[in-house]
Amino acid sequence: MYFNGTAAKSVSDTLAIIKTQIKTESTSDNFANKLNSILLNKTNDNHLKIYFDPAKFESYVENRETKRKYEYEVAKKINFGFTKVEILEGNVGYIEIIKFSGFIAEGSAPKINSAMNMVENTTALIIDLRKNGGGDGRVGDILATYFYPEENEIYYDSISRTEKYKVLPFVQGKRYLNRPVYILTGFDTFSAAEGFCKFMQQNKKAIIVGEKTKGGGSSGSSVPLLEGFLCFIPTSFGSADKEASVTPDYKTEDKNALNYAKYLFYKEELKKNLPTKEQEIAKWNLKTCEYLLKLNDKNFALNKSFIGNYENDRKVFLKNGQPFISFNNKEYKLIQIDENEFIVVGFEDTFGAGNRRIIFNTKGFEEKIYFSGQLLNKFWGKL
Which CATH code of 3.40.50.11690, 3.40.50.1240, 3.90.1150.10, 3.90.226.10 fits the domain covering 78-224+236-269? Predict the structure, then answer.
């Protein structure tokens, strides 16, 4: 039963008035969208939602065992929500979680441990929740524990009240301590994922980067209706307003959030007394992020002496006023990012966007690529 009785009655009265009109909707999606616009208008609750899923509907109307088996198979297909774990340039860990799946012992907890073990030696960590629509809040509780040195009792401002919250007494792997953590958010970040973000942000365990989230502060479950339709009904009091949303520490478009988090990290790294090689890599990666985010608005005059023929059949020329380089019978646009430094556009899949560059001097140019933390370079003299 929906926790807000007054709002539920308002929805019921409205549907009774327009039910004939709703029946004329031609597709299941149109029908669900029409109903959901009414539900949202009357309750301002993003959690209360009708959706069409025949396979899920069939499993739900049979019995509890069939329902759980169906949900388990769905969770397995997305690796219990843990879809990507990587070590990015600059020794930055990256974990993408698209759902907090509720199968703790047999799925979520082992995946958390595996992911955290993968990134245990990184300098910083990015957790990507831009596609995470929520799930089981216990997954967030387990994940949050990795960022505390031991069992802690702390205070946390939840949606409706200030609560005393205890992180778990142990984790299976090593804890991730005293290193920067960034969490990426988007408008699709919702429900339990928002709760995790809010907890980490309030306790200064992570920096939130991205879009303000949708806002969903209630817990509940899906209920089968008729003919393949289900409804997620919030059953416990949380919040049916936008206070449940998470406001990022650094707001940027969803699509730019990953590069912006990396940009923030490299800026902080360059404030440290790094060894020469690490400093060069951080500067390189910072320039790449500035290029991708279009943050470098400096105007550099093109030195016309760069135009010409170089060794190994390389040629630098102007095309429609823009500098290009050609080799191996292909042409690539050059983007100037410094007085004598250019990004070669067109190697995104091989080396990552912005990571193949040429640096000119009076005798020719050096072709440089930082790949997996290693510098690959070759000098080509001017003919």
Answer: 3.90.226.10
